[in-house]
Amino acid sequence: MASFTITGNLINCITRSLTPSAILVEQGKIISVEPLGGPAPNPDLPYIMPGFIDAHVHIESSMLVPAAFAHLAVVHGTVATVSDPHEIANVCGMEGIDFMIENGKKVPFKFYFGAPSCVPATIFETAGDTLDANAVKALLQRDEVKYLSEMMNFPGAINGDEEVLKKINAAKAVGKVIDGHAPGLRGDALRQYAGRGISTDHECFTLEEAAEKIAVGIKVIIREGSAAKNFDTLIGLLDEFPGMMMFCSDDKHPDSLELGHINTLCSRAVAAGSDVFNVIRAATVNPVLHYSLDVGLLRVGDPADFILVNNISDFKVLQTYIDGTLVAHEGLSMMPAFVSPENPVNRFNIGAIKIEDLSCKAEQGKVYPVIGCVDGQLITEKLDLLPRLEEGFWQPDIDADVLKLVVVNRYHQAPVATAFIHRFGLKKGAMASSVAHDSHNIVAVGTDDESLLQAINMVIASRGGISCVGNHENMILPLPVAGLMSLDEGHRVAAAYTAIDQFAKSLGSTLQSPFMSLSFMALLVIPHLKLSDKGLFDGDAFRFYS
């Protein structure tokens, strides 16, 4: 590997300085950093800064395998991700995690994976596999695995569940940090949760909640994904707690990744008035130090991981380097557009369903709440609305925007779970998806059973995908890798996703990201009301409705 020198205004978040400098790189390492002239920035030079890091992301939610994700991400200056593979682990267990790690190694990008702590996420749904404490302990002993992934079972952590504590103690034994996941947790329960060694949380949806978590020593990761968006609410805390905050996307669809990544959050933070050094620190330094990542921070001896940007307000990325290799230049990725996965994994064990499987009989004396979808959030509401009653069966009420929601077990034949949802907005047709956090059964929403049946059976026939039907048309984006990811390259997947997203919106959905929102309607660990393949679930009481 040849040596080279890069010149620019070097950004140092620790000393809070901008210094024209020359950086000598040899064999992928920074050999020297020499000042050029005076301490004032040179307006004719680009700015050199550490590469961006997404501090919590599920690569699977991009619908791209890791290598294809990296191809898009490096254009935006991302050099590494802290990646939780629990989506594919819930489908394919250890085999799925191995797939993610091996595919990530095919490109010069720094994927740092966690050991999923909650597979299955709860006992109230059907997943494709289980990772017990022994499996998690084995994962944590691997060099590629840097941390224990988000501990979603916060009741188990607080109450001292034996299996949960074994996983937490396994991480502590090897000196690896423990990620948290505790939406809305406050007070004594929060202090107990933090006392177990939980180090981060990316689920804060109020400023007060985030401040309280920081006060008990939990670092807050500001999330801005394709569905859940907490940036505007939380960014005001950054200057007060610059060492306690990071940025993440959590779940990011391919069309959104094509447009930008952590770089856009930095630009927005500076525009909102945040101190630029604090912003860059949150996007680069803090995750490296917190997770002990082998990512360079522009120090002599560090890996040559850095980016050149036009200025420190727009953060337009000019070049991206990883281990001294130029991987993106002027908006073009230098990585392979796609590395075909070997032996793509999947588990899909059902055949087509029938229309009678979707019926929802009205039982005397039983009236259930309707799920209230909240655009831009993972939380939902419990609403006292009623669907339409027709000949003893509950039916969608399109005028009232009360639509049928169903979850179909994809791992074995089982009764279809039904409920109703408000504020999804469809006026015609249906949508279905095998991306359905966290167990990834098939979730679908529709205005009538015929459309629902068609959308669901399209997904089953493809052994995974997202589908949409209506106005005598249908579309599907196949996701043959675990029913979560495509076998295509990023730009084509982004184009296909954009087309089906626009189709869903043309049928009436007013949500920012209809398919992403749909995928979270089965996520039981986020309150208040969700639907699993086993029935309607009360996220506050953490039990099924009878």
List keywords for this structure.
single chain, 546 residues, alpha/beta, TIM Barrel, 2 domains, 14 helices, globular
Report the total helices: 14
What is the terminal separation in angstroms?
65 Å
Mean pLDDT comes to: 95
Residues in helices, as a percent range: 25-40%
Shape: globular
Question: What's the SSE blueprint?
Answer:
Blueprint: E1 4-12, E2 17-26, E3 29-35, E4 47-50, E5 52-57, H1 66-73, E6 78-83, H2 86-104, E7 110-115, H3 133-140, E8 145-151, H4 154-159, H5 162-173, E9 177-180, H6 187-195, E10 198-201, H7 207-215, E11 219-223, H8 231-234, E12 245-248, H9 254-259, H10 262-271, H11 276-291, E13 306-309, E14 317-322, E15 325-329, E16 332-333, E17 370-373, E18 380-383, E19 388-390, E20 393-395, E21 402-408, E22 417-422, E23 430-433, E24 442-446, H12 449-461, E25 465-470, E26 473-478, H13 490-506, H14 514-519, E27 529-532, E28 535-538, E29 543-544
Parallel strand pairs: 1-4, 5-6, 6-7, 7-8, 8-9, 9-10, 10-11, 11-12, 17-22
Antiparallel strand pairs: 1-2, 2-3, 4-13, 13-14, 14-15, 15-16, 17-18, 19-20, 21-22, 21-24, 23-24, 23-25, 25-26, 27-28, 28-29
Helix pairs in contact: 3-5, 10-11
Q: In brief, what are we looking at here?
A:
The protein has 546 residues and is an alpha/beta fold.
Structure description:
It contains 14 helices and 29 strands. The longest helix has 19 residues, at 86-104. Helix 1 links the parallel strand 5 (52-57) and strand 6 (78-83). It has two domains: 51-294, Alpha-Beta Barrel (TIM Barrel); 355-544, no CATH class. Helix 3 (133-140) runs parallel beside helix 5 (162-173). The strands form five sheets. The chain has an eight-stranded mixed sheet with strand order 3-2-1-4-13-14-15-16, covered by helices on one side. An eight-stranded parallel sheet has the order 5-6-7-8-9-10-11-12.
